[in-house]
Structure formats: structure tokens, C-alpha cells
Records
---
Amino acid sequence: MSDPYAGLLSRLRAAWLSGRTRPLEYRTAQLEALGRFLEEKQQDILEATALDMGKPSFEVELSEISICRSELNHTLNNLGAWMKDENVDKNWATQLDSAFIRKDPYGVVLIIGPWNYPINLLLVPLIGAIAAGNCVVLKPSEISRNMERLVAEALPSYLDKDCFAVVTAGVEETARLLENKFDYIFFTGSPSVGRIIMTAAAKHLTPVTLELGGKNPCYVSDTCNVQNVARRVAWGRFFNAGQTCIAPDYVLCSLEMQERLVPALREAITEFYGPEPQNSPDFARIVGDKQFKRVRALLSSGRVAIGGETDEKERYIAPTVLVDVQEDEPVMREEIFGPVLPILTVSSEEEAITFINARERPLTLYVFSSSKKVVRRLLERTSSGGFCANDTIMHMTLTSLPFGGIGHSGMGCYHGRFTFETFSHLRSALLRADGREALNSLRYPPYAPRRLPLLRIAMENRRRRTAACTLL
Amino acid sequence: MAEVVGRARAAFNSGRSRPLEFRLQQLRNLERMVQEKEREILAAIGADLHKCGHNAYSHEIMGVLGELALTMEKLPSWAAPRPVKKNLLTLRDEAYINPEPLGVVLVIGAWNYPFVLVMQPLIGAIAAGNAVVVKPSEVSEHTSQLIADILPQYLDPELYPVVTGGVPETTELLAQRFDHILYTGNSTVGKIVMAAAAKHLTPVTLELGGKSPCYIDTDCDLAVACRRITWGKYMNCGQTCIAPDYILCHPSIQSQVVENIKATLQEFYGEDVKKCPDYERIINKRHFKRIMSLLEGQKIALGGETDEASCFIAPTILTDVSAESKVMEEEIFGPVLPIVSVKNVDEAIEFINRREKPLALYVFSNNKKLIKRVISETSSGGVTGNDVIMHFFLATLPFGGVGNSGMGSYHGKHSFDTFSHHRSCLIKDLKMEGTNMVRYPPSSQKKLGWAKFFLLKRFNKGRVGLIMLALLGVVAAVVIKNHQSVLKRKALLVALAVQRRGWPSLC
């Protein structure tokens, strides 16, 4: 059976070869059009996300639309500077030459978005890909059905249809899509699918950025302002009904701390969502029946200390806190991706560090402590994609910080300038100035034995003064 | 293999490869090794590639010593936390990128520059604080064995083990889990390495190859151009990943190019190149036969002499080569230089773009605009204009391929960055909960406005701007309440003017 995407890919590749996407004016125009899409379709986005997973409009405005707009503006403000050739330091042999790094677009790139933040996690990479001068195939998640339809129907009319295409595809079609050659693939999703993507990319030697996930530990030390901690942890955990790749997945703390933390969490949850969170307009729902059933099954781990109520019709799971959780229980064996916060007790900071290091490296690590020393120790003795002390999620909002994972939580990073660089090939260029062929003769054969000591003495001196060594 | 890697991982987990002092000490040991074992290293490379001592020194040892010196000098600054620009909400916080080791990395070397292609990545990996499993190419067996012998004498043998062997051993090695793999070699094996890495979600740097084109414009100093091309093409008997693979030029200068290269070859290697100690050999019979088959049916304008027993192939030039011939299909990796005719630079650019992206691209021309145009309209790992090879030797330039010629890059600081995890760190404190309130539910329009203002770079200038102005006005009034009214008026005027001109970006 022939490849259903061959026609699309060849059209995009022809557009790419025409060079149309490269000038700054073109990229700027496309990005501005993207901005208009966000403006004009704002209401549709709010409706679609509400339908897909009961997303509160406050959350959508903040975590989806505003973040995209911010990245867009940041990119538009800086694109000219980012695109410039970057001059590099030269050594004495190349002093008169021109040496720089050129940011080349890759060509035709593929962006696969997830369902949990269907605007943010699809468009922020798109912004960088367009900014870097590529043609783009966009594949929104089929699980957030209404958003998928909105993006497929509305977005193409804002962008140059020859250079940017939206593909709707389920699992099988995506596999067919991946058989084609792309010049870069950007994927956000689970580690197991990440493996499939990278394996497919290997067939074409396509470089990839994988934004995956894991269980983000949240260590709460004994010295802290419990009420503030509870609020920040609850906010991070229950935002988007827990369906956030950088949500605190589980808490590690001492038994004493747990006894102060649980009532504080209860208070924070009530502050946020009222006595009946199901009636709060500010609490989301689980995206689908399959995911709902998966998260609900995790509620049998440990003991429910707060929440635990579910409503299958609405795919509602109450903001829940579990205690007395053992590390081999179901809730500790997979990324929760739901509004359930297990608390595991540890007898010391050392035990917490050992616990964290025995597991796969997470996308984010959280530490809550008023002691800078504790924060420093956790930072130095663990490894994670990112690290945030005394708050949750917030490191993601700083565009100057690269956002990405390590190990099973991913490879590569983006946001701000890093997105532009992700989608650019950093090409070295050395343009030699005229003349000085006499200097070059030192490197040519035949090699008179007397030349070598001279060369070596010259090199040894140079090595002490400057750092860069070179072949003449 | 599992044992070796397991020991390296345990050694890494002990934390001893992390302190800067330890890394610097290992690098110093490495430097001592290169200096003390210089004779053995030169002999091994000579045995593998029939390379004279001078060449071996300048091709392999000099570069390694330079990289070591650079790395040892700069390591403290490279490894230091890198502060980043903050926004309004994080002004009181610490925000920085912390370079950290990845863990256990695998370096797979190639046979053509068997020492430097293992050492340079190793230097970067040690500098970044990792444990490193080193796998030199079995094809360059003398150098591979030497590395296996001497490295453990100078470096921590658990943290930096050397693994030798062929395809079966490498396959077993690739089944283990690493935190980064840097492979130098060909595209076919590159795909195998990446597929193996995918199973563990291991990031890779692939330094592959391709056919590096060399365009010679009619407007250029042909004598100089040909001398430089001769040097780059026939060094190491053409077995260089960034050698100019083939020439593109106008048919009218083809014979001149041949004459110039011929004259240069005489200059370099004398009358009898086979007797010249400065000229290398093909690494083994398999590659010898492979390159021989590329000569079939070609017009040999120069050279063509061979001697299978010693794997000798004379510097050879082929003219009027057709784009569809075998010699134009695969990377030559030998002392055979095809010349393909093109009518002009447009045709050359088209020719280059129809093929896989090469590791290097070369353009010779007096016309700077033309060179810039060729660069802008093509893609390649790197470029050198009016010379060949040289972009490899500037450590500040990242060295790597694109598309079929590879992914990722290294050299100098780029090696350090390749083998590091750049961990984003945001250190806040538990105070200022007031500002956090704007993001918590229950939601409201006013909260949303403030949340956007605090969290994001840009904000709606309208209503929020007015609120800001009001706030500023109140602050100004409070602060200068004891001052004359003139000052107060001035302050308000200034504030109004600022608001009229729009708010400055928080970028």
C-alpha cells in the first residue's frame, strides 16, 4: 500500500527547496499570523479545551494562550538577533579570517503534540520551528479531539499552506507518517512512545527532541512554612486535574511533616476549589475514559486522606491525597498524571535522596525547605531535567531557562531562544582571507626534519599563552 | 560488557568523577600519557596507516595536546552555573543553568585518525564529569591495542575502561544502557547505533560522513587553490572524513586544475610517491579493493598506479566524471579525486542540493559574494572558504554533521556541552506568598490580569497599565510626601509620560 503522506511530504519539500521560508520577513509574517490565530480563535480554544477536559478558562488563559503569546512576542522581538551569524573567537592562525556559526534551518520538520496542553505544547515548538526557517508538519493529539479539529480546520488558513500542514492521525497513521523522512522531529508524550519515535527517526538519521515524563519527586523538609508549601504543592498538583508533565507526582517527607502537611493541604484545596470541588469552575476533568479508569485504579493504593470521590460520567476525580503509600504500590509504579498526590514518609533526607536516585531521572525535582543548605544538598546529589526549590511549575515560565528532560524523561530542550536553536543546524564556517600562502607552506610536505622541532617549539609556546592549538 | 559498564556506573555513582579537581587531575594524567608515550603512539599510528612520525604528530597528537590545554584552562568557567535573565516574578530568586555530568557515556572511535578521534571526545567527557567507556576501532588494531594498554596506566581504570573487539563485541556493548553515545564512523552503522540507543532513550552524537563537495570558481587563484586541495585530499591517503571528496568546476579550467595538482604532488611527494615516507597507505585490503572498483571505466588523468600487497594507491585524478558513476555514489575515502563539470555556480549549487547533506563543503573563489551565496543556498555540517579542512582546527567552531552526515557536534567547549546535562534551576523561597495568590483559584478577571502581568514578559497595556500607574502614583506620593509639591507634580508628569510612551518590555 502506498504511503498516504508521500504527496504531502513532497509538496512541503518542494516548498522548502524554493527557499521561501528563509527570509526574516517571511518568518515574521507567519509568526504574526500565528498571533492572530491566538487572538481571533481565543473563544474557540476556550470552548474546545472545556469540551475535551473541562479545562477552566483561567487555566487556559494562563497556561496555554498567554504563554504562547509571550513566547511569540519574545521570538518576534529577538529573531533578527538570533538569526545573525555568531562570530567565534579565533586563534592566531585564523586572526585575519572570518569564523562564525551560521544558523541553518533543517528543512521539513515534524512536531507531534500531546493532549494535556494542546495549544501550548503544540504551538510553542511551532513558533521556534517557523522562527528557524523550516517547513512544518504539525500533528496534534487525537485524544483531545475538539482541539485537534480546531487546529486542523482553523490554523492552516492563517499560515502559508505550502509550507505548513496539519495532519490528523491516530496511532497507525502516525506510524505511517513516521516512515517518511523528516529533517527534525519534536515529540512531546510518554517515554514508551518516545522510544518508538526515536527508533523510527534512526532509520533516516533524523535528530530528535523528546519531551517525555516520569514521576517528579517533591521533597518537603521539616523546616518550612507548611501553609505556603501546601498551597504551592496543591496548586501544582491539581492544576489541569493533575495532567501536567511537571506536576509534583509524589511527596517525600517525615512522618511529623506529613501530620502537618495533610491538614494544610486540606485547607489549601478548600481555599482553591471550595467544599465541593466537583462544583468548582476552576477544576478540570480527566481527558478520556481510558485515562479516567487508569487514574481511578490508583486510588486503591495506601489510604485516602483527602478526597477520593469520583464521577465516571463527568470523568471527575476529586483532588486526592493518599497516605501510608508503599513504594511498590500501583500509584508509585507509573506517572500518575491525575489529581492524586501520594505522600511517602522517609526517616531522613538521606533516605529521600536514596529513594529518588534509585528511580528513573524525572523531568523535574522539587524541594521545599527554608534551609538553603537542604536545597543545595538535594540539588547536588540528584539528577533531573529541571529543578525548582520552594515552588512548583514556575521554572517553566522563565523563557531563559531551557526546558527538557534527561534519561527517560527526555532529550533536548526548548523555550525562548532554545526553541529556535533546537530547530536550527549550527553550521561552522571559516572563510579564509587572501594571501599568506607562505604561512600555509609550514603544513605542506615534504617534511624537512628540522621543521618539526621549530613547529613544536612554536606550538608549545603558544599553548602556554593562549588556549587554542592549531595545525598550521 | 555488562560487567565493565556496571563497574563504570558504580564508579560514577560513587561521585568521584564529579569534583573539578578530580577531572583536572585526570586530564593532566592524560596529558602526561600523550607526552610520555609519544613514541609508542606515533609507532602505532604508523603501523596502522603507514604514517610518518611528523604526520602522525601533526594530525593526531598536536590536536589532542591543544584540546587538553584548552579544556584544562577553561574547565572552571565552563562548569560554573550560568545565571539567566529573570522576569518580574523571579527577580528575588536564583535562576541559572547548572552544567552536570550525564553519567556513563560511550565513545566509539574510527580507524582513520584512530588516536585523536577517541581522545578528543574522551577529553570532553572527562571534563564534563562523566564515566567513559572507550571503544577504539578494531580496524586500526595497533592503535586500538595501545590505547587499551596505556590508558589504564594513567587514568582511573574503573571510570574510564577501554573495550576492544569487533562487530560482536560492539553489538553487545550497544545493548548496554549509556547516558550518551558519541560515534564516529559511517552512516550505515550510525543508524544502527541510533536504533540501539533508542531502546534506552539514550541521546547520541553521530559524526558520520558523506561526499564533501569542492567548488572551484573560474575567478580564483588556481595555483593556491589546487595546492590547498591537494594537501587536504591526499593527506592520510584520502582517508579523512572532511577531505574534499570531489571537485565541481567549469570544463574550461579542468585541465589547469589537473596540471596544478600534478605540480603540487611533485612538490609534496617527489618523483616517486611510493617511496616517499610522507605518503600513507590504505588501511586494509577490503578498503583497497573497494576504492579500486571505483576506478573502473573512469578516465584517469593522473595516477592510477596501485600495489595491492602494500595497499598503495597513487594520488589519482579522474576527469569528465559522470554524476551517475559509482565513484560519485559513495564517499570515496581514498586518494581518488573525481572532477565533475558544471557550467556555473547555479548548476553547482543544484548539484550539491540534490544529494545528501555533506559533512563539509568547500568553495574557492575571489568573489566573496559568490562564496556567501553558496553557503546560503546549501546545507552542510561545516564550511571552509578558500581552503579545505581548516574549520576542523578552530576549537570555538562546533564540529559535526547534518542529515546523513551526522547530528550533534563537539570540539572545545562544544565537547563539554555535548557531554553535560544543562539543568535548569529556579531557587525560590517560601516568602512573598502574596504575589502567588494571583495564580491560585478561585479565579477572577482581576486575578487573571495580575497573573499575566507577573508571570509573563508582556502584558496588556490597557487596564493593567492604568492600575500600575495608579500604584506607582501612590508609591511616589508616599515616598515624597515630605517634599515640595513641585517635585510631586514632576513625578506625576514623568509617570504620565512614561505611560503614554508605552511600557518597556520586561525582556
Note: Residues 319 and 361 of chain A are 26 Å apart (CA to CA).
---
Amino acid sequence: MATLLRGVGRPLCAFRGSPGPSAGVPLRAVSHGAGLLYPEHIPTSLLQKVLLAAGSAGMALYNPYRHDMVAVLGETTGHRALKVLRDQMKRDPEGAQILQERPRISLSTLDMGKLRSLPEGSFGCAYLHFLDVNKFHQDASLFHQWEIHQGDLLQKVSPDTRAPTRFVDDEELAYVIQRYREIHDMLHTLLGMPTNILGEIVVKWFEAVQTGLPMCVLSALFGPIQLSAQSLQLLISELIPWAVENGRRAPCVLSVYYERRWEQPLQALRQELGITEPPLRVEGLV
Amino acid sequence: MAAPRSWALWSFCGRGWSRAVSGYRVPGLRSSWPRGPLGARLLSQEKEATETHFGFETVSEEEKGGKVYQVFESVAKKYDVMNDMMSLGIHRVWKDLLLWKMRPFPGTQLLDVAGGTGLAWILGDAEELPFDDDKFDVYTIAFGIRNVTHIDQALQEAHRVLKPGGRFLCLEFSQVNNPLLSRLYDVYSFQVIPVLGEVIAGDWKSYQYLVESIRQFPSQEEFKEMIEDAGFQKVTYENLTSGIVAIHSGFKL
């Protein structure tokens, strides 16, 4: 244990986020300024990541309102999948541009006026409609906020992701996961899925196939637990196969520069990505 | 332990100690040192550029109070749950031991500083107490003094407000005296505690501050000397749980 703790090198040392003098004690000086890879970065050791992953998974199951836990789970378990995603993006010209320019989707970057002026049937118009229908709020504190409303589970949706990435130890990968979160609403729009529980699960299946992120896989597998028998039956017989098929057929959805395609007709974009109409309407189902 | 509802600091139990004892638990960590309405002290010129620690970070003395305040604002909601989770309930034993050592009786004028719960509340600053001299029989501070910017001033104030014959008692995290336990304690502190903070309270940074501030606090002997410097006599300390916490005691004679 003593040799383990002597900071020989990151892979050998389970306790170190970064090398430092004494056993088990990460150098906090490193967490301020110099050692951080990006502003919100919290360097973590392997042990901490394992504990965080387990803890966040448990807490997310125990309290589904803890969306921050889902985010933490994604960050602590996603390293490998994020690398694969990043490499996929690099190989694609549009994806490479996204990695280069690092566009962000938030209330401050979206030109709402422009979006509203877009023609009916355009992707941008459909996206805006999606935000409107799902009660887009300016001060959503998390990417999604769940709310029980008259027996339905509705989500308050906002393009604002105020939960920045913290536990990814690579600044490019930190952007990739942030981008993944920020295009989630776009996927809803493309797939024609509402933000009720069933709709979210369908999107998660699509994302799981597309990204391979363990957090998506876990959500896809565990999400359906809370469904009614009828919804579960529809999910398994129709929606999941459809989501998986589309997920496989579509190119990497993170390589699509959505902000440059607002005017593109929604149908044309769907066709380009190989996304077909959903097999049934999911609104009103729980 | 009831969760504190405000960031007010004090618990001044003027009378009816027996009444207090039955339902009374020694308040835990609950300190905030705003440069607030009472004891708003102008910084003297010499203090302007002085730096101090905030966990392992270096900050100006001016900043520290505010930063500590933010930590406690942040941890307030889940305070009791977190204390239980982090110490596996042992913090209650430590606080009981403090009370036992104090052996209060009806009529004891007790001042508990940085108290989480209590009977009567007064807001103030540990470095400048809103009380007259020679007022209390016992002054206690449990898991609070670590967060004070100028510990020596807090100690001097404690000395001032105590009656002659009065007793100072401090329960605080200290240095572990057993090398093996010390290693385990470090691993637990730095690897597990912030994770618990994140998972339970959604707050990594406050709990990172907590474990770092423990490391920054003087050792048992050093703190004993600081207490003596403030004028206390017959200063002793007792380690609990191999020095994870210590109770320091001193008398104003």
C-alpha cells in the first residue's frame, strides 16, 4: 500500500488524482488554477471515480429527481465511450469543425428571434416548437427538471445546462460530454419524442446505441422499471426496436452541426440521418 | 440533532440548565462569521494584505470569513444527515463526552459558540463577542473554532467573557496519533468524504474544504499553547478516537 500511495504514476496509483507528497492526500494546490484542465474541473482519483459512479448510480435510482447524479454517473463512467465519440467526430468534417469551434447551446447563444422567424417545417422551427410545448423555462437549474403534474411526468425543458462537466479528466472529452447533453433536445425533435417518461426512455435507447455511454445504457435498462404494463409492452414491441434501428443507421449525431441547419427542412434532415417516423404516438402515454 | 434553521451562531443558556439537559444535545458545527451587524470591525492598515488558509487554498483574511459563510450556507440543509454519514454517528458520542466532561448543573451560565441548536439565540462574531466581561461559567465551542479566521482573538474573547473560575472547553478535530490509523483516516477523508458530499448533498467542494480545514488546524500541543497564550491556565486536552477529535480544557483563574 505504501508503494501504491507514493504517486508513482496515475495508472498505478488508485488514490491519486495527481501526484503529491503525502499518502492519500491530493494536493489541493493543484486544484486551484494550474492543475485544472478547465474551469469547473475537479480532478479525481480512480478510487473516487469508482465511489462516485457507485454512489451516483444508487442515488439516481433512489431519488429520480437527482438529475445531477445522472450527470455525475455519465462523467465518471464515460471515459472510454467519450474517446470513441471524439474520434468519430474527428473523422467527420462537420464533427471536426464542432470540436474546433466548440459551439455551446444555451439561452445566451440561441438567437430566439431568428428561430421564430424560420419557416414552418424547418428544423429550427420544429425545435422551437418542441421547447415551447415542453414549457421552456429560462431558469431551469438543471438540464431537465422533472415535475409530477396531474399524474403525468412532464419535464421542464430549457436549453440551459447549468450543470457543467466536472469529473472528466480531459478537456476535449469534457466538451464532448457537454455537447452530448446539449443536443439532447435536438434528438427529441428529430425522433419526434415528447419529454414524458416513455419519450425519454426511447431517446435514451437511441443515445445508448449511438454513444455507448454506460450512463445511457443504464438509464435505458432501468428507466422502464417505472412504466405501466401497457407502456412497457409498447416500448418493448415497437419503440425500442425502432429506436435501436434508427440509432444504428444514423451517422454519429454529435457530428451534426445543428446550429447551422436551422433552415433545413426537418424531413430532409431526418432523411439525411436515416431517421424514420416513430411507429406510434407517444404523447399522453405514461 | 435538529437542523439549524438560520445561520445565527449562539446558544446562550442563561438559566434552567436542568431543563436544557434533558432535551439538549451539544450543538455541532455551525459557524458563520460574517462581518455583520454586531462587532463590525474595521480592518486595521497592518492587516490589509495578510493571507491565511481556506482549506489548502490561500486566501486573504478578508475573504476567509465570507468563504466560510458560503460553505455553511451550502451545507445547512443536509448538515445532520452528512454528519451522521461521515462519522457513522460517532459525532454524537463525541458531543456527549464533551457534555459529560462539563458536568453542568442547574444554574450554570453556559455560552456555546458556533452552536447548531439551542434555547436562546444571539448573533455575533466569535472574535468580538457581544457580551460583557466575566459573565459565563462555561464557554464551549464544538467544531467551530477551526473555521474562525483569527483563532487567537476568539480565544481571547472566550477568556474575557468567562467569570474567574470559569472553564473553556473546545471539541475539535485534531491530529491522529496512530500512524496506521492516520493513513486510513487520510484516505477516508480525502477519497470518501467529498464523494459523500457530492452524492448526498450535491456539494463536493464544501466537504473538500471540511477535510482540508481539519489538516490546517493546529495540533493538540500547539492549540494547547494558543489557549495558554490567551490567558487560560491548567490547560489540558484529551484525545478521542485516537486523536481524530480532541477536547481541550482551560480555566480562567
Note: DSSP finds 13 helices and two strands in chain A.
